[in-house]
TrEMBL record:
First-listed, main subcellular location of the protein, grouped into a coarse class: mitochondrion
Annotated GO CC locations: mitochondrion
InterPro entries found in the cross-reference section: 4Fe4S_Fe-S-bd, 4Fe4S_Fe_S_CS, FAD-bd_oxidored_4_C, FAD-bd_PCMH, FAD-bd_PCMH-like_sf, FAD-bd_PCMH_sub1, FAD-bd_PCMH_sub2, FAD-linked_Oxase-like_C
Keywords tagged on the record: FAD, Flavoprotein, Mitochondrion, Oxidoreductase, Transit peptide
Required co-factors: FAD
EC number: 1.1.2.4
Residues in 4Fe-4S ferredoxin-type domain copies: 559-590
Domain of life: Eukaryota
Subcellular location: Mitochondrion
Similarity-based family: Belongs to the FAD-binding oxidoreductase/transferase type 4 family.
One Gene Ontology MF term: iron-sulfur cluster binding
Name of this protein: D-lactate dehydrogenase (cytochrome)
Length: 1005
C-alpha cells in the first residue's frame, strides 16, 4: 500500500470542497471494502471519492494533477483482471438521484445514448419498454452481452470492450460505437457528436491529434504490423490498447481514432462520461439446444463446422468439470438426462447452441441449417436427440435453464472450490479451427501442474475460452506454481496457437507483463507511445494494461480465508450488488462478506497472539461493522442475483442471533443481550394482546398528527427515536391508522347441487394492525382484509378464517431481528393452525401480504400445506380472475413488486393484473425498498438510499398512485415518492365486478 507523504492528506482536503464530506471515504473499513473487485487481486485505496457529475470528475482530476495522486475509475467493479482497484485514489461513480443514469433512445430504438452508471441489462429493458410504448416493429438491444450484464455498468462495458455470450467480434462496443463524451487527464471534455466541440478540440489539442495521425500513418505504412493487427482482431482480443483503431481509420480523421482508442482502455487514457451505441436487432424468436459430446476436441470440431457453414447466433462450451458441477441443477438434468451418466474419466463436453430469427420461418430455417452442418460434419454426439430440430427448446422456461447455467458458470465453478482457496480466471482466444488442439494443450498444462479442478468453458463460436482454476497462496511454493502455470498457458496461447491472452475481460494487471509476448516489441512500444501521448504524467490508472514490473500479475493477490459456511464460497464477483438496498449507504453483500472475513482473520490472529488489548484496526472494523450490520435489510435479494445462491442476509441474521443469545464469538455490537430473547419470547406468547393494542395506538398517533400537523409531529418524534438508538420507529406522515377488526362476510348462496367455493384466508398480522395512511382518500377507512373479503365475495367464495387468528404470526419480525428460535416457534404454531383450517391442505390458503406468504413457503415443512399456499396475485389469477370483470379505473400508476414476490416469480403476473385496471402501468426499477419489516423505519436512511430514484420515476410517468402487496413496504414507498402506495387489492376491488350469469335460452328464444 502506498505511504501518505502528505499528498493524500492535501488531496482529500481539496476534494472535500468539491464533493462534500459524504463523497470522501477514507476510513479503514470502507477503503478495505472498496479494495476488492471481481478479480483475484486486492489493493486498498488511500481514499475513495464518489463523483456525481462530469464536472466533478474534471475538478477532481485537477486536484490529482496538482498533488500527483494517481486516479482509478470504477463503475460496478465487476472487472475480472484487477483494473478497477488501486492503492491510490479510487473514483467511484455515485448513484445518488439521477447521477450517471441519464439516457436517450432515438430512431425507433436503433440508437441509444447512455451515461456510465446504467446497468447493461437495465439498458436492454429500457429498449424493450421503448419498443412496447412506441409500437416499434423491431426489438433492439446493445451489442455487448457479458454474463454479468445484469450487474455490470455501461462504464465498465465500454472501458473493457466487453463482449459476451451472444456478442460476436462485430457486436462489441468498438464496432457498435457511434459517439462519446470523454474527459481527458487535463480536464478537457470532448463530445465527438458535437461539431463545435470537435472544432475546439482540434484547436486546443492539435499536438495530441497530430500524434494519433502520425501513429496511424506509421501503422498503415507498415505491411507486417498492419497484417499482425488484422490477424489479432479477426478473433476476440482485448490485450493491450485497441490499436486496430490505428489501422481502421484514416490518419486525416484522428478524432475517430481517438474515440475507438478509448474503447477497452480501462480508464488509463481518459474517462468516458457518455456513449452513443448503434443497437443491434434482438429477434424475439429464439431456440436453444444443449448437445453433449464424448470428447472436447470433437465438440470443437462441431463448432468449427458451425462457424464455417452457418450463421448460428451463439455457441457456448461446457467442459467435463463444468458439466459435473451443473449436473447438480435438477432443471438442467431434466432437460439433459445424459449428464449424470457421463463417464468419470475422459474429456466430455457440451455445446449450448442458440438460433434466432425475425419470425418462425426464419428461425426454423436457421435451426435446419445448423442441424445439416452438424450432420455433414460427421462428428459423433452423445445426446439422444442427435442433430435434429427436436433438440432445440423454444419455450423460454426451458432454454433459460441452459442460459442461466451458462451465465452462472464462472461463479458456480469458483463456488465449488476448496474453502480457503482463491479462484483464478484467465480469458483466452484463438481461431476456431485451432480451438480443439488448444483446449487439449491447456488441459494437459493444468494436469501437469496439478490443477485437477480446473475447467474450460466459454464462447466457442468465437474461439474464446475462460480458464478457471483454484489454489491457495499461503506459501512461496504455491505462488511459484501459479507463476509457472500462467507463463506456460500464455506461451501456449500466444506463441504456439497465435491467440489472444485476453479475449474480453481486459488486460488489467493480470496479463500486463505478457502484452509484449503476444504482440511483439514493435506493437508493444506503439502502445507505450499511446499511453504517454494521452497521460504523460501517468495519473490515470498506472500499472494497468502496460506495466514494466514482470511480476505484477503475481503481486497483491487476494487471500481467501474461511470465515463462515454461509459465505465461504463467495468469489466477490459483485453480481449481488445491484440488488442490495444499502449499496449506496454502507456496504454491499460482497463488501460485507470481505469485511467480515477480514475481521474474523484479525480476531483469530489476536486470540492466537495472547494479547489483552485488541489491535486498533480490529477495533475500527468492529465499530464500523455494527452499523453496517444494522443497515443490512437481510431480505436475501442478494441471493437472487448470486449464481451460487449465497444469502448474505442469512449470515447477518445468524450473527444477530448469536449476539442476542450471548455467543461472544460473533458479537461485535457491545455486550450480548440474552434478555432481549426473553422479551421476544414473552411478546410472541402474548401476541394476540399486542395485535389488539397496536390499532388504537396507531389511531392515537394519527389523531395527534391531524391535530399538530406534519412538522410538529416530526419534531415531537425525533427525540425519542434518537434516544432509543434506532430501536423505535421514526414517524413519517404516511404512517398508517389502526386497522378495522377482521369481519368475515356471509357465505354466498349456492345451489343445492353445487359445490361451494371455499378458501382459507389469512390476513397477516400487519394488515390486521395497520390500516390506510391518513390523507389516503382512495383507500378510505377500510383495511386490506376488508378489500380482499370484498373481492372474494364478488367471486362467490366462502371465506374460512383459521382458529386463533388474532395470535397468529409467521415469525418474520422476530427472525429478522435475530430472535430466530422465537420466530420458528411462531411459524410452527401457524402451520398447525392452517393444517386444521384447510383440512390438511385440501382447501387453498391465501395470505394478503407477500413477504409473510413467502416465509410460510420457506419455513413450513408439510408438503401438502406448502402446495396449498398462495400469494394474493397467484390466487387471484388462478381462482378469481375468471369470475370477475375488470374496468380500467386509473390512467397511470406505479407497481412495486416486493422482494418476496420477486422470489416467488410473480412480478410479471402482478403487472398483468394491474394492467386490467389501469391504462398505463409502470413497474418500479427497485430490487428492494429496504423496509425489511420495521428496519426502514428505524434506519430511515436505508430506505432513503434504496428509493433514491423512485420520485423521479413517479414524476416522469405522472403516476397518480402506487400499488404493492406489502403494507410496510407501501409506507416507505409513499414516504419517498410523495404519492400514496397501497395494496394492489384496493385497485382490484375498485375495478372488479362479478361476471354476469350466462343467459339461459327459454321456450326456444
Amino acid at each position: 500500500m502506498r505511504h501518505d507523504d502528505g499528498r493524500y492528506t492535501a488531496f482529500k482536503a481539496s476534494v472535500r470542497g468539491i464533493v462534500g464530506d459524504d463523497g470522501v471515504i477514507d476510513d479503514p473499513v470502507r477503503t478495505f471494502a472498496y479494495g476488492t473487485d471481481a478479480s483475484f487481486y486486492r489493493l486498498t485505496p488511500q481514499v475513495v471519492v464518489k463523483v456525481r457529475s462530469e464536472q466533478e470528475v474534471v475538478d477532481v482530476l485537477e486536484v490529482a494533477r496538482v498533488h500527483q495522486t494517481p486516479v482509478t475509475f470504477r463503475a460496478a467493479g465487476t472487472s475480472l483482471s484487477g483494473q478497477a482497484i488501486t492503492d491510490s485514489v479510487l473514483l467511484k461513480l455515485s448513484h445518488n438521484g439521477t447521477a450517471w443514469r441519464k439516457y436517450k433512445i432515438e430512431n425507433g430504438g436503433q440508437r441509444i445514448t447512455l451515461e456510465p452508471g446504467l446497468i447493461g441489462g437495465e439498458v436492454n429493458r429500457l429498449l424493450a419498454s421503448y419498443k412496447k410504448k412506441h409500437n416499434c416493429e423491431t426489438q433492439y438491444k446493445i451489442g455487448p452481452d457479458p454474463a454479468s450484464i445484469d450487474s455490470c455498468m455501461i462504464g465498465g462495458i465500454v472501458a473493457n470492450n466487453s463482449s459476451g455470450m451472444c456478442c460476436g467480434v462485430k457486436q462489441n462496443t468498438y464496432h457498435t460505437l457511434e459517439d462519446m463524451r470523454v474527459v481527458l487527464v487535463d480536464g478537457t471534455v470532448l463530445d465527438t457528436a458535437c461539431t463545435t466541440s470537435r472544432a475546439a478540440f482540434h484547436e486546443s489539442h492539435a499536438p495530441l491529434l497530430a500524434g494519433l495521425s502520425s501513429l496511424a500513418s506509421r501503422v498503415q505504412a507498415d505491411a507486417s504490423l498492419l497484417a499482425l493487427i488484422r490477424q489479432k482482431y479477426a478473433i476476440k482480443n482485448t490485450t493491450g490498447y485497441s490499436i486496430n483503431a490505428l489501422a481502421d481509420f484514416s490518419p486525416s480523421d484522428p478524432i475517430e481514432i481517438l474515440k475507438r482508442i478509448m474503447i477497452g482502455s480501462e480508464g488509463t487514457l481518459g474517462f468516458v462520461s457518455q456513449v452513443t451505441y448503434k443497437t443491434v436487432p434482438d429477434h424475439p424468436n429464439k431456440a436453444s439446444a444443449f448437445l453433449v459430446f464424448a470428447d472436447i476436441e470433437e465438440a470443437c470440431d462441431a463448432v468449427a463446422a458451425l462457424r464455417k457453414n452457418t450463421k448460428v447466433d451463439a455457441v457456448e462450451m461446457f467442459d467435463r468439470r463444468s458439466l459435473k458441477l451443473t449436473s447438480d441443477m435438477a432443471a438442467l438434468v431434466a432437460l439433459c438426462p445424459e449428464l449424470p451418466h457421463l463417464p468419470a474419466d475422459g474429456e466430455a463436453a457440451a455445446l449450448l447452441i442458440e438460433c434466432r430469427g425475425k419470425d418462425d420461418e426464419a428461425l426454423a430455417a436457421q435451426i435446419e441449417s445448423v442441424c445439416k452442418a452438424l450432420r455433414d460434419s460427421r462428428v459423433p454426439v452423445v445426446s439422444a436427440v442427435g442433430y435434429t430440430p427436436e433438440a432445440f427448446k423454444h419455450d423460454p422456461k426451458d432454454f433459460n435453464v441452459y442460459w442461466d447455467a451458462r451465465k452462472g458458470l464462472i461463479p458456480i465453478v469458483g463456488g465449488g472450490r476448496e474453502p480457503g482457496t482463491t479462484m483464478l480466471l484467465e480469458d483466452v482466444a484463438c481461431s476456431v479451427d485451432k480451438l480443439g488442439k488448444m483446449s487439449k494443450d491447456l488441459i494437459a498444462i493444468f494436469q501437469k501442474y496439478g490443477y485437477h479442478d480446473a475447467c474450460l468453458m466459454g464462447h466457442a463460436l468465437e474461439g474464446n475460452l475462460h480458464l478457471i482454476f483454484n489454489q491457495s497462496f499461503k506459501t512461496p511454493e504455491e505462488l511459484k506454481r501459479y507463476e509457472d502455470v500462467l507463463y506456460e498457458i500464455n506461451y501456449n496461447v500466444a506463441i504456439v496457437h497465435g491467440g489472444s491472452l485476453k479475449a474480453e475481460h481486459g488486460t488489467g494487471r493480470n496479463v500486463a507483463p505478457f502484452v509484449e509476448m503476444e504482440w511483439g516489441t514493435k506493437a508493444y512500444e506503439l502502445m507505450w507511445e499511446l499511453k504517454r501521448l494521452f497521460d504523460p504524467q501517468f495519473i490515470l490508472n498506472p500499472g494497468v494494461i502496460l506495466n514494466e514490473d514482470p511480476l505484477v500479475h503475481a503481486k497483491n493477490i487476494r487471500q481467501d480465508f474461511v470465515a463462515h459456511p454461509l459465505v465461504d464460497r463467495c468469489i466477490s464477483c459483485g453480481w449481488c450488488e445491484s440488488n442490495c438496498p444499502s449499496k449506496d449507504l454502507t456496504l454491499t453483500p460482497r463488501q460485507r462478506i470481505q469485511v467480515y472475513k477480514e475481521m474474523s482473520r484479525m480476531r483469530e490472529e489476536w486470540t492466537a497472539s495472547g494479547a489483552q488489548l485488541k489491535p486498533a484496526r480490529l477495533l475500527a472494523f468492529e465499530s464500523s461493522w455494527e452499523y453496517a450490520e444494522n443497515t443490512c435489510a437481510a431480505d436475501g435479494m442478494c441471493q437472487e442475483k448470486c449464481p451460487v445462491k449465497i444469502n448474505t442476509g442469512e449470515l447477518i441474521k445468524t450473527l444477530r442471533q448469536n449476539t442476542l443469545e450471548g455467543d461472544g464469538t460473533m458479537s461485535v455490537g457491545g455486550p450480548a443481550t440474552p434478555r432481549g430473547a426473553a422479551l421476544a419470547a414473552m411478546l410472541a406468547a402474548n401476541f394476540g394482546t399486542v395485535t389488539k393494542l397496536v390499532p388504537p395506538l396507531l389511531d392515537v398517533v394519527s389523531l395527534t398528527h391531524r391535530l399538530l400537523g406534519n412538522l410538529p409531529m416530526a419534531t415531537l418524534t425525533w427525540g425519542p427515536w434518537r434516544v432509543s438508538n434506532n430501536y423505535l420507529p421514526l414517524w413519517n406522515k404516511y404512517m398508517p391508522r389502526g386497522a378495522q377488526p377482521v369481519v368475515v362476510p356471509t357465505p354466498p348462496e349456492v345451489a343445492a347441487d353445487a359445490k361451494p367455493k371455499r378458501v382459507v384466508y389469512v390476513p397477516s398480522c400487519v394488515t390486521r394492525m395497520m390500516g390506510p395512511a391518513r390523507g389516503d382518500a382512495d383507500a378510505g377507512d377500510e383495511a386490506v382484509h376488508t378489500k380482499f373479503m370484498s373481492l372474494l365475495s364478488k367471486a362467490g367464495y366462502e371465506v374460512v378464517i383459521p382458529e386463533g387468528l388474532g395470535s397468529m404470526c409467521c415469525g418474520m419480525i422476530m427472525d429478522s431481528r435475530g430472535f430466530r428460535d422465537v420466530g420458528a416457534t411462531q411459524a410452527a404454531q401457524m402451520q398447525q393452525a392452517l393444517l386444521d383450517a384447510s383440512d390438511r391442505g385440501k382447501l387453498p390458503i391465501v395470505c394478503d401480504t407477500s413477504p409473510c406468504l413467502q416465509r410460510m413457503k420457506e419455513k413450513f415443512d408439510d408438503p401438502l400445506l406448502k402446495l396449498a399456499l398462495f400469494e394474493p396475485v397467484q390466487f387471484i389469477l388462478l381462482y378469481l380472475k375468471s369470475e370477475l370483470e375488470f374496468a380500467k379505473v386509473r390512467d397511470s400508476i406505479a407497481v412495486h413488486v416486493p422482494c418476496s414476490s420477486k422470489k416467488l416469480k410473480v412480478g410479471e403476473q402482478m403487472v398483468q393484473l394491474a394492467e386490467l385496471c389501469a391504462t398505463e402501468v409502470h413497474a418500479t426499477p427497485i430490487p428492494c425498498c429496504g423496509m425489511a419489516g420495521d428496519r426502514g423505519m428505524r434506519y430511515p436512511e436505508l430506505t432513503s438510499s434504496s428509493l433514491q430514484h423512485l420520485d423521479g420515476m413517479m414524476q416522469k410517468h405522472a403516476c397518480s398512485d402506487g400499488y404493492s402487496t406489502s403494507r410496510t413496504c407501501e409506507m416507505s414507498l409513499s414516504n419517498h415518492s410523495g404519492v400514496h402506495f397501497r395494496s394492489l387489492l384496493y385497485l382490484l376491488d375498485e375495478a372488479a365486478t362479478p361476471k354476469a350469469a350466462p343467459i339461459t335460452a327459454r321456450n326456444g328464444l
